[in-house]
Records
---
Amino acid sequence: MAVDRSLIGKVFEATAPMAVSAESIIEFCRTMEEHNPRYGKSGANGEIVAPPSFAVTFRNTDAFFRFTPQLGRGFDAGKEVEFFVPIRAGDEISLTSIVRDIYEKTGRTGTMTFVILRSTLTNQRGETVAHVDHRFVHRNPAAKENPAETE
Amino acid sequence: MTAASERQFAQVTIGEALGPFEITIGKPLVRRYAAACGMDSGRFRDDGEARAEGLPGMIVPGNLSLSLLSKLVTDWIGSGGGHLKRIGTTYRSMVLPEHRLTLHGFVTHVDSDSRAVEIDVWIENDDGERLVIGTASVEFPTTA
């Protein structure tokens, strides 16, 4: 599988601002059985503050794979998330995603293609909320075992 | 897992353990998490749809593993001024629902100057296999 490294640095998706509802944060907190008083209904100053990992619910990485059908969907091999500003109810989050890196690795199970997509979340005040680096792995036809074995 | 009251930077020592906490991720939780996150893939919803993708059945989304490990750290921080600055995870093996798992953390580095703490985090199965591994960075304010 040829790796088209010219895609590195390409902005492949920039979303319109997405409103963060109080209900979405509260549902996330309920799902995670979040009891930390910093998050959910009892945030500081009466605000409804999302737990940090709420940031990974904002995704637009599917757009990348639509114009690289030869890669297929692949598997989520990992994430790196850097948090800057908490997400609060009423925020409007915009998402811009770029191709940060593409590379191949060869291990016991064959050659695989790794794609690193970086999504930058920005709020309505222009503050960077988070960087989310998504690491996807795509098995080449000869690779049959657990892809992460080569990492 | 429950949030501690308020962890102070001065309390933190290298080698301190977070957890372990046992958890069984049920299929209803997988479906609810996927729905809350707008993840509409069948592999997170239905065993049959997952098998049609060549999987053994429903799997736990990587994002849910990341969220559980994030919560392990934010519970440890508690309600004080410290905050989770970064978390990175690697999904080494598929995490399947309805299996008993254990969440672990271990303080590996404490920097008194920057008041920063590095923590190894992982999810382990009953065979001791680390299915998800990662690291987290926590920062404490000077007043904490």
---
Amino acid sequence: MISGFLFHIGRYILLIRQVFKRPEKQSIYFRQILIEIENLGLDSLAIVAFVSVFMGAVLCIQMAFNMDTPLIPLYTIGFATRQSVVLEFSPTIISLILAGKVGSRISSEIGTMRVTEQIDALEIMGINPTTYLIFPKIVASMFINPILIMLSMILAVAGGWLAGSLTGLVPSSEYVYGIKAFFEVYDIYYALIKSVVFAFLIVSISGYHGFYTKGGALEVGAASTKGVVHSTMAIIVFNLILTKLLLA
Amino acid sequence: MIEASNVSKSFGDHLVLDGISVKFETGKCNLIIGQSGSGKTVLMKCLVGLYEIDNGRVMYDDRIFSRMSFDEMKVIRQELGMLFQGGALFDSMTVEENIVFPLSMFTNQSPEEKRERANFCLSKVNLENVNKLRPAEISGGMKKRVAIARAIAMNPKYLFCDEPNSGLDPHTANVIDNLISELTKEYNMTTVINTHDMNSVIEIGDKISYIYKGKLWWEGNKDTILESDNPELNEFVFATELTRKLKQK
């Protein structure tokens, strides 16, 4: 099992080295990056927005439920909701959702290209398939994911405000005061650094599993599952590492 | 000319190619034939560098291809076209985009020049008005023809075809065979075709190499293959009633 793990780590590192080789023609790659920004980022906008609003709403209600004491000021609900959203929920939970949505798409797309010999066709043309297929996806995700995460933060905080106001658990003025209280810009940097690292992990790990797919339709499905599972595990592990490095 | 000298390839303990030495001549359709599992696809993938060979060498004219790095291979690969068994057209692109893709990658041609080239290549394979269709919207035979058009877009010196008429009806298979043969003669390419279709062998086999259990077992051409007394070759060639009747005549 350990030798298998080391084998995959070694092959993954070699693949990443190949991915960052000089592209054949930069204008083509620039166009590919724009296409991938649409495929991987803009197409995820709806799910990110939907999850964020409801996540923020639930967070606010839970905070209100747990702080039901006159000793804690009501604005703490807004403050705690914002902190939870900015530090953890938006960067990590949204990245986990993107690992499922984007990761499975990347693994199955590249895996299908492998089993239908499209990757061989690229190689025969003298094109580095790893650079052509994975590099634009990495760049696009590392660019668009932080924007999605920022959007998620705004929508989650707004969702919390909506839930708090509509249920009467926290007055609007208290919530707004809370979300502005003790604001540290570094928290945003921390969240964005995490989202960039998670974006790299999602695309590179899913791309790795797709690229080394062997067999047919069944194996493409298996590669897609592995891509999602392994990128999810990597996000969880790196979440801990980054939190220790950046906050502790 | 492409030359393989003493090429061997194993997967784990399984020896697939056992010291194969063969020459593929310029301006001819060089056929690699053999039963399923005999190693002909592996040989072709070794020739184009998709598999790294264990022993021996592969030469393109005077250049030792098998000892080149990926970047060095790029030069030869731009002189090489390949038709894959399933076509291997890029699903996300239209027919025209598939054909102009290598041109966009390796030339500085204007969009008009590339479109003209795509139309020229499509006319060579007798296709028109399919430019904007996607691979999923065209038939199997059309896919093969588009794949040939893509393979010749860069004016290749070497053309590889992996089972070009598998899964096609006899008429379309014949059209594809003749197309490859005509293009080979017209552009003086070194064409290597991997097939187990006896009709192709008899139609276009300028040079035929029979692979048996990973070894080069017999060499000849379409005129000599039916006269051979090699028992393993005859077992392959006369496996069907049609070829047996052909021999009787």
---
Amino acid sequence: MNAPTLTRRGFNKGAGGIVLAFSLLPAEVLAQAAAARLPGSLNNNRLLDAWIRINADGTATVHTGKVELGQGILTALWQIAAEELDLPLSRVTITQVDTSRSPNEGFTFGSQSIENSGVALRLAGAEARAILIELAAKKLGADAAALKVADGVISAPDGKRVTYGELAAEANLKREASAKVRPKPASEHKIVGKSIPRLDIPAKVMGGAAYVQDLRLPGMLHGRVVRPPRYGAKLESVDEAAARRVPGVVAVVRDGSFLGVIAEREENAVKARAALIAGAKWSGGDTLPDPAKLYEHLRSRPAQTTVSSEKKATVLASAKVIEATYNKPYMSHASIGPSCAVAQFADGRYTVWSHGQGMFPLRVDLAKALKVPPPQIRCIHFEGSGCYGHNGADDAALDAALLARAAPGRPVRVQWMRDDEFAWSPYGCAMSMKVKGALDGGKIVHWDYELWSNTHSMRPANPAGNNLLASWHVADAQKHGSVTNVPIQFGGGSDRNAVPLYDFPSQRVVNHLVGEMPLRASALRTLGAYSNVWASECFMDELALAAGADPVAFRLAHMTDPRAKAVIEKVAAMANWKPGEKGSLSRGRGIAFSKYKNLACYVAVIADVEIDRASGKVRVREAWAATDAGLVINPDGLKNQIEGGIVQTASWTLLEEVRFDRNGIRTRDWSGYPILAMPDVPKVSVELINRPNERPLGSGEGSQGPAGAAIGNAVAHATGKRLRDLPLDAARVKAALG
Amino acid sequence: MAINLKVNGSSRSVPAEPDTPLLYVLRNDLQLNGAKFGCGLAQCGACTVMVDGKPVRSCVTQIGTLGGAEITTIEGLGTAQKPHPLQKAFIDEQAVQCGYCINGMIMSAKELLDRKARVSEADVRDALAGNLCRCGTHNRIVAAILRAAKEMGRT
């Protein structure tokens, strides 16, 4: 198998190591009463050897349940494990998620990998090191406290020494973690806190095998799928013979309204797909809402209404009240590479290679769709093209498995075409936000916020149904899962960042979770946070304007959290913010802030824009960000995420909107979904406030909310007009300029 | 039928029809991973390779039109042991997030550096205007290309 590897050493190099059989216990055993709560993902994967094994050659193999998505997480986790084990990075291997051997950490999402997997590896690493030291003390006849460890060698004061490799056979890591061994203090860190070059980059610039798209297994066939022309349409008939006439076609697979083809050669699979499309007759299907009235439609639908936050205080009648409605359209993940998967069906078992965000949850829904018990399916993660949430990766995995069933023994690689990706990958939700604020004495005395949205979580492994696309199309169709919202204590879903971090004496935040989902939507980077920060932080500027206050001073006046204040002050200094500066079309400037999920990193952004009067085109010239993510594991990796988030958000904010009409999705290729291109990308400066004694805070999504609102505020500053509907594209800005 | 192609300096025979997109032949017959399928419509640039020194979109280039042209892919630029200055600069600048677009970025930059004796930041941004990146890595990509240009005496 010409398989990519992210590891410095082969996985099997440590044969003879101390763990012979991997020992993950079933969930029921773990759920025993009285088990103490362990930090991070140790709680659900409690055995040390689920995380770390020490090999006879003195190396360590580290497992994580989190997957590489191009965010550099494997490198950061590798640093954490090596640091605690006192091994050089060159002797530590970190493996990709494989349901046959990895700890189950669910999905890689929500900027939680450092907080959950990182914490587990930090504690497991420290405990494994302590176990090795204890063994060494016995062996060397020395006091454990007197031993020194460097690069996997344990030395006694008398000069006697023993290596990790020599202790590997005796060290028992097949035991429950106690989480009692204290990890190193930040002052002793030699690897954590360093900008270690990412493991995955060399293959990506050399044409190495780096992606699931690059898997090339012996005897592999190529598959393509044909989707309905609109949601809910039924396949009445199809001219299969035309597709079979294409050379090398191995099978046409039709199951209800699921349609696909496999061929020996990829180009012939593409041709056969075209023949199937030409010869397919579909009936029925859903009518979509009128896009011109999307937000009214959304607000008029039945919804589960919950109060996310409520704080009451008397508001005097003399207070000045202003209100506004903000809207955000459906947005696409728009990954550069369409979704892809490889599957093999042999002897009643499936092996599936996927770039999904959670191999264990994927396996749950695959098992439901394929009607086999989960242990008969092995899911292995391989990176795909940029992943910003729940895209089509999981769906492609089921497509590949359904096609592989028609060619037993042979691996089948399915890659979606560009139109499959734009039309069928789940979108980021359209949302509508109504905000009302009361001002008295230049301060906000009441904040009232209501939002309307679909759920941002239609991922696999929902117990009420199946969330894989093809499972809805096969003859024995399954229903999608239930509509649920991520609870606010885990950061919220549609109401993520809907509760302001400012100290308002009186506030009410209401979430209307709309059940009817006209366009397929699920998790896109930040869930509701981008929208909610967009509305809230733009409205903060509206209130500042009404109060005659400077936007920076106004924010600081309503904030008590010192870390929040620090990033706002820092970014103001970085951008040389001048209170009272007048905006013009040649330069408008805006600021915005959020603490992602109200639980993770603090980010404040300032953006400068210029606007072309003739066309209405907005260009973000420059952006600055100040970030506090607590203890920083890899400063360059964190900066890369914050920078990238700002640029991606500039694209969302200025350009992006999924096009549809009553009959279906119109966005089918890049001409229907322009994104920011190289000449229009702003210069970005990022500074980190490192707090080595604070716990590390998730940050992969931290800059997106504030970046969008900062751009919105900059456009208002430049034009004197407040634009509240996204995107701020040229047509909308031109109309506003009159 | 078989068609002969000249790829990275070697002559290769591939069992494919003349209307086959070059991209599939490179990836599947010649096992070259660098060029990526992004859109199949010449819109995104992920599949960029050089044909006789000019950047082309291999997803819409039929092999039957290539004759004896010299095809260069990213694998033809350098190796892990001996990387091209562009490849080395992308590693030095950590100018990658997901990296799916990087093949196209490097190949378009290579053509720019071959074509122009001196390149500015604006030249780089213009030359890469047709290569889409979704992770927002653009500024690092530009920095990497300018670093390579400096290394090659082109700034």
